């Protein structure tokens, strides 16, 4: 765990030590307010420390794996219930991953940040997300451009994903939902567009994450 003397306590969950150090240095560049950064490699480490410390925000940096996306969604699902006033930020590896997290989460974030953007843009985004603006304010939308114009999955699209994860074929899903096959294929295609995936494997990965969230869809 890393400790930096400052005023506002921020928790950073990051499995890569070098990346954590870089983000910590970046946060120290802001002087109003100044940030005291605690870095943790797992949510479990953070939760243990939270018993003794009070954090203003928690940032979850995604390593890019399906398992960690699941962990992130479950973790923030619990955080919004146990500590609703703590700001919640996610650092995604690219825009596609940011879109995926936005679409699959049942909870709101104060920012879903794309780590692939230029450093000056990333810095502007993270400081805006840590500000006092609510999620749908101008500041929050600047910090989270993917969230500014969301394309949410419809109930039918979510149901189709659930059936796909359970091993149903398109024709079987059509039978279950009493729809024709072309309609089911159209819903599947729309879900792929919204999630930013272009293969059946990618779609199944997304459906798998939906099934492992703290709250069922």
Automatic annotation (TrEMBL):
GO terms for biological process: regulation of DNA-templated transcription. PROSITE patterns: HTH_LUXR_2. This is Transcriptional regulator. NCBIfam families: PRK11475.1. GO terms for molecular function: DNA binding. Residues 146-211 form the HTH luxR-type domain. It comes from the Bacteria. Coiled coil: none annotated. Keywords: DNA-binding, Transcription, Transcription regulation. It holds the Pfam family GerE.
